[in-house]
Amino acid sequence: MNRILYLILLALITVSCSKSDDNDNNNQYIPNVTFDTGNLVNTNLPQYSQLKYANNHVVLNNNY
Questions:
Q1: pLDDT at 9
Q2: Residue 1: in which H helix or E strand, if any?
Q3: Which UniProt keywords are listed (predicted)?
Q4: Which of 7, 20, 35, 55 lies 20 to 30 Å (CA to CA) from residue 64?
C-alpha cells in the first residue's frame, strides 16, 4: 500500500513540474521589462560590477 501511494505521489510531482515555469507571467500588472545599458554603463569597471548579478543596483549621481 505504501509503495502505491509513493508511486502516485511521485507521478503527481513529476507531472506538475514544467520547464516553462520561468517564462509564465501570470500577473498582468508586472511588466516584463528588459533594458540595455549600452554605452551608458561599462560593467567591467569596479564601480558598476554589481550590475552583473541579479537584484543589485547602482545609484548614478549624474543627470542623464
A1: 92
A2: none
A3: Signal
A4: 55
Q: Quick: pLDDT tens for 6-63.
A: 999 998 888 777 666 555 667 778 777 777 766 777 888 888 888 888 888 888 777 6
Helix (H) or strand (E) holding 4: helix 2-16
Separation between Cα atoms, residue 51 and residue 42, nearest integer Å: 10
Cβ burial 23-53 (10 Å sphere, 16+ → b, else e): eeeeeeeeeeeeeeeeeeeeeeeeebeeeee
Q: What's at 25, amino acid-wise?
A: N
